[in-house]
Each structure stands twice: as C-alpha cells, then as structure tokens.
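As a representative case, we now present a protein record of this kind.
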Amino acid sequence: MRRLFQIVKSIFFSAGRGVAHDAEVRRMIEKHPRLFYFVKKRLTPDERFGLYTTIGVAFIIVFLFFFFNVLLDVIGREAITQVDVRIINVLQIFRNNTFNQAILFITYLGRAQVLAVGVILFGIFFLWRKYGEYALALFLSVVGGEVVVWLFKIIIHRPRPVLANALMIEPSYSFPSGHAFVAFSFYGLLTYFVFRWARRWYTKCITIAVGLCVIAAIGFSRIYLGVHWPSDVLAGSAFGAAWLTGSVMLLGLRRQQSVAEHEAARYSSASGIAFSCLVSVVWLSFAFFYFQNHPFQTITTPTASTITLTTQELPAALFANLPKTSEDIAGTPMEPIHLVVVAAQAELTETFAKAGFLRTDNLNLTTLWRAFEAALLNHSYPQAPGTPTFWDTQPNDFAFEQPTANNSVRERHHIHFWHTPFTLPDGRPIWFATAHFDKTTGFSQSFLPTHVIDPAIDVERDTVRDELVASGNVASVSAFKIVPPTLGKNQAGSPFFTDGGAYLIFLK
C-alpha cells in the first residue's frame, strides 16, 4: 500500500513539474507573479499554510455548503421534509425488542454523561503521555461544538418527530442532531489520533473502518428510534465533519515525518498500549452501566382514532380529506387506490388465500437478503417481500402476491394493503389497496434492484376482482371513479396508465 502511494505521488508531482515548465504556463507566471506565488505557497506541503491547510479549508467549505443546503431545505419545507417522515415510518417495520436494545445502547454512546466521562478519561491518558494539545483539542471539540449545536437548535427550533413514531422522549429541539455531530467531534477525533499513531497501513484502514461504522451507527440510531428526522442527522453529520476537519487542521497536519515517527514510537510502548486499553475498557464499562441503570422514558404508542361510516356514505366519504393515490418516498403521487375492501383482517387473509394469493413475509434484513438472492439467481420465493409503497406517508401494512406458472420471484401478481381510519358501524375495517403485475426485475432510478411492473394496472385490478369473486367469499362489488384517466410512473420509474376507476368490495 505504501509503495502504491509513493508511485501515485511520484506520478502526480511529475505531472506537476511538466505543467510548470510548459511555455504558456511560464508566460502566465511571469505576467502574474504574485498570484502564482500565493498559489504555490498554498499547494506546497511543507509550508505553514500550505497544501494540507488548503485541502482542509476546501473540505470545510464543502461540508458547510451541504449543511446550509439541508438547513435551507428544512426551512423552506422542500422535498427532503417529505422524505423525512416516510423514512421514519418505514424504519418502524424493522423494529423488534432485541434490535431496539442494541440501538438504544449505540445511542447512549452519544449521551452527554457518557461523553463527559470519555473526555475526562482520554484527557488523563493524553496528559500522561504528554499530549496536552490532544487533551485540549478533544475537550474543545466536544464542548465547543455542543454549544454551537445548541445555539442552532434554539434558532431553528424545529420540532422533533411526532411521539407516535418515537421509542423515547427527547425534550430539546430537533435540528441539527447533536448525536450525529458529536459522533464526528468525539469519535472522529479519537479515530484521527489512533490513525496518526498507527504504524502499519492495515491498522490505519481498520481504524478508519471502525470509526466510520461507529459514527454511522450513532447517526442511524437517532432515526431508528424516531427522535430525529433524517435531515437532522444529515445536517449534524455535515457540521460535525466540518468541525472535525477544523480541529485536525488546528492540531497541525503539517508536522515533519520524523516527529510523527517519534510520536508513533513513543505511543507504541507497552505501557502506553496497556494504559489506552485500560482507559477504553473503563469507559465502555461505564457506558454499559449507565445504559443499564438510566433508561430513557419510553413511549406508549397511542391507539389510532377511528371514523365510523355507514354503507350509504361509501365511497364518497373515504377520500374527502385523504390522498386518492399511493406515494413514493418523496410524497409524489403514483398509482391510484383502485381497490377498497370491507372485511375483518382474518376474512381478508382467508379470502385472498382461497383466491390463490399468499401473504408476503414481513420486511427485515433476512427476508430482504433472501429476496435479493432469489431475484439474482431467478429462484422461487413465493412470499418475497416487496418495496414498501406509501399512502398518506405510511408504508403499506402488508401485501399479497400470487406466483405465475414460471414460479420465479421476478414475476408475480402483487397487491399492497393499507389500514385506514374507517370502519363500518358493525366494526368491520375498510382497507385500501393497489395492485400491479411484476413482470421482471430491474433497477430503480436510484440504482437499487426492484420490480418492473406491467403498465396496464387496470388489467391487474380487474383480475384481482374476478379472482376474489370466484373464491365465493364476496358479498358485493361496485365500481366508482376515483381519479381522471392518468398516465404516471411508480417509485421505481416504471410507467403505468389507468382509466381512474376503482372497486368497492364487501366480503361475506
């Protein structure tokens, strides 16, 4: 790795010397000597404010540009705010008690109490090793950065996600995420220290990988737990990366190689390694103890309110104040709701099973991998989960699919169902659904693997109606118009067309 770096460095500087000796370039230098002298100083590695400072400033500008872009989108309620709520909603599908506890511990690594102990312990270690500037940098990076983040929270005063989506209560404002910021200002700085002291390239690579995983996990934990919008975490991460870059610059990236080697040798002594391991174990033990003995105040999800409708009010009252179409992750309208089914959930599942449809597996990492493997190898997976589709910001509650004669996960009849707030006076719930035929697999506009649908979604709607009627469990079917004739695309970019009609189906 070091040899490869030296080769690339040699090629880079050789190209630079060739450009510098070009006749046209020489004339430009002679014409604007002060400008080129300034540029040369900024690109010279050994200068006081040379190449490394230039690179650092460039990175800070990029990170701050990204931060303020997210900030302006949040203030202006741009598309990112629509993506925020749907990402939080879809992550609830993956929640389970074991994963919840693991994510809770990860988020504790960004708690003020755990960070305070970490700053003290590692500060003592740096002072003992005579790295007073590192102890000071760690303190200022965490404390100074948290003060700035707190000021942003007060100025922006963005509310946190609604409590129905959260697993805990956080009292402060939401933007930007302090945990995402401190993941860079504390863990990022520790990663830099270890990277600088490491003597072998593979140790440096492992250090960067572990550091990035910890930083990403802390940011993800805030979204998963429902206490931050994804844009809060993006902004906090961008601001934290800029802050970390500035801290590293102030520590001095332009040290002479001999000094760096001396420091690495001094650090790698047996006593230094033993003490650093002891400090890490003590700190992580405290974090685990704090996690066990200071639980967050958890939230009980409130029971959703229901709206009772009579049969005479159907279907007109269904869409008076609710979307008539499904949505992609940014809230863009897609396929219209073209199946409305009135039935208890057990009757719904029984009827679709009788019509030859299977309930798809719940979406989780295991079923996602199994579906990806089956699609890649063209194997059968009759109950493969599909990409979540949204209605009124909520992902579909469940889905049914019917395999074709090819018995391949690439081709299937597919129906998404959403629970609605409506019920009949006898208590039977009303379900909304969209149906389409997955004719093959491909890549979405975001280059993720997905299904390509047949554009004639009305044919699939009518097929589902006919098969439900053939099951013998249907009491009545009526047609109604929900939207005008429409051409559109779904979230994977597949086109569709529809006459805008829908069916209201009562099961026995």
